[in-house]
Amino acid sequence: MELEFKKRTILSEFESPFENFKNVKVTGEVRSCPLSGHSTRLLPVRLKDFARIDWTPIINRSRELGCPFCAEAIEIRTPRFPRSYGWEKGRIRVGGATVFP
Q1: Alpha-carbon span 42 to 44, nearest angstrom
Q2: Which of 2, 17, 48, 88 has its CA at 20 to 30 Å from residue 56's CA atom?
């Protein structure tokens, strides 16, 4: 089965407060996920900056607790598919990605 991520181009027209309310046309995209049904808009401008988050304390705490997704633990802390599924080592690997049940 092949997943098809849908994308459509949209044209928005509005009077921009950033350009003294001059009439502006902006092209963007609406993308939809076939699995979740969620859609999102992508515009060429960002309306606000997102706060920068320092993830270091969370990552360090995760490592202390034994994060099953860290490279050094994935082989011993994650489940495997039964060999009858056809994957000899119990996990599907493609490039740097690993899939497990």
Answers
A1: 7
A2: 48
